[in-house]
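Ticket #4471: structure output looks truncated?

Reporter: J.K.
Steps to reproduce: submitted the chain below (208 residues) through the standard prediction queue, then opened the result file.
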Amino acid sequence: MILLAGKALLTLFVVMDPIGLAPVFIGLAGGRSRDEQRRTARRAVLVAGAVLFTFALVGPALLGYLGISLDAFRIAGGLLLFKIAVDMVFVHRERETDAEKAEASLRDDISVFPLAIPLIAGPGAMTSVMILTAEAGKLPGGVLVVLAAVAVVLLLAYAALLASARLATILGQTGVNVVTRVLGVLLTALAVQYVADGTMDFLVKALG
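Returned output as attached by the reporter:
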């Protein structure tokens, strides 16, 4: 259970990258009052949490309904995470398209879009939550451990958003890039492990 908790925390922290959210939040909400920034951060984290908890609880059942095996989803998720990881390593992290950026610039409320989705609860986070929950379902109380890990990382993301101005000043763009690259390397290894595990299980079931 401790291994599951550690794996879930590390995976979600790397994928969601709370530290990397700080400069993005400053760019989006830096001109707003402190109270408004706090309300925006709180709303964004709550919405992202609702999305991730929904994927955690409904995701495995949805896969079963669609006839998608966990092995197939693990491989697909690994490939998706690998792409995200490569972008992190080379600091080409685009969590939203140009069209989404243009839309965001015209909106007063940025908490749901683009903060909650896709910056906090992006495709990588949703995929990771579903894989972790499906794997944890084999252990008593495993799903609760994953949900607790989601809550902890969301709290860290909230703290990072509130401290975004200070973090951006202390780390600077270079510091943020260094942290992002290190997390990207870890995520690359995790993605490869997902693909390897899924492929191995496929082969075992096919040969067995």
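Triage note (M.O.): checked the attachment and the full token line is present. The first helix runs from residue 2 to 16.
Status: closed, working as intended.
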